[in-house]
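Renewal narrative, Specific Aim 1. Our central claim is that a sequence can be written position by position from structural information alone. The example that follows is taken directly from our test logs and has not been curated for this report. It begins with the structure tokens describing the chain, in the order in which they were read.
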């Protein structure tokens, strides 16, 4: 066992050094943000410095992998972690201890690139339904295959269909997401133009943090709107 692996605690800079091989975009601000959101709770030294144990690092790997490979919002990741902490996850060791245990496509463990038939079968929809999603621009191909986002959209659209929500109704949702993406692009554009080392990584990290905050704001507006409608 190396001297480093035998240690009980690591500083935040040492944690970054361990994570950046797999997660180049991770930063001090990202880790602090995850802490502020309650996803990690590192110990503190008497002088107030963060002290990360091996379990904290494993937890960080789980969070970062879920964000990168599954595109999960922090709210969902936090719920999953809470279930693991409560012992409700059937395989908590696999969930927190093995990066490979996190499904790579964000929607149940399918491949990252799917053919048209694979996408329809995985989403549980017919070819006509997939064609309708494509017609309204909700699902798009990259080359001859579909990415993980297409599977998420197709599955969600199928579930919404049970309530009578049709693909044409979802164009407004996509348009809102595109406007939010444009806003994020506008904010990070100056960072992308910088020529300093790590500028693109910082821009990517900032974009993801803004996206999380935007999702939270969007959810709050929806909740407020529903509360108003239901109280009338």
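The sequence written for that structure reads:
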């Amino acid at each position: 066992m190396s001297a480093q692996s035998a240690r009980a605690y690591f500083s935040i800079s040492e944690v970054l050094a361990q994570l950046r091989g797999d997660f180049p975009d991770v930063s001090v601000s990202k880790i602090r943000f995850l802490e502020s959101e309650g996803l990690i709770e590192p110990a503190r030294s008497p002088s107030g410095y963060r002290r990360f144990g091996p379990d904290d690092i494993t937890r960080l790997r789980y969070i970062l992998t879920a964000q990168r490979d599954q595109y999960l919002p922090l709210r969902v990741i936090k719920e999953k972690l809470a279930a693991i902490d409560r012992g409700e996850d059937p395989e908590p060791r696999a969930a927190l201890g093995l990066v490979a245990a996190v499904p790579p496509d964000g929607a149940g463990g399918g491949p990252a690139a799917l053919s048209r038939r694979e996408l329809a079968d995985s989403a549980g929809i017919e070819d006509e339904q997939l064609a309708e999603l494509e017609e309204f621009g909700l699902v798009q191909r990259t080359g001859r295959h579909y990415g993980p986002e297409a599977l998420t959209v197709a599955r969600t659209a199928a579930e919404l269909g049970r309530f009578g929500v049709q693909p044409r109704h979802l164009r407004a949702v996509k348009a809102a997401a595109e406007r939010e993406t444009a806003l994020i692009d506008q904010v990070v554009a100056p960072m992308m133009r910088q020529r300093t080392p790590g500028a693109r990584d910082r821009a990517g990290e900032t974009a993801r943090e803004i996206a999380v905050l935007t999702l939270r704001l969007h959810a709050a507006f929806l909740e407020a709107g529903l509360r108003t409608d239901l109280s009338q």
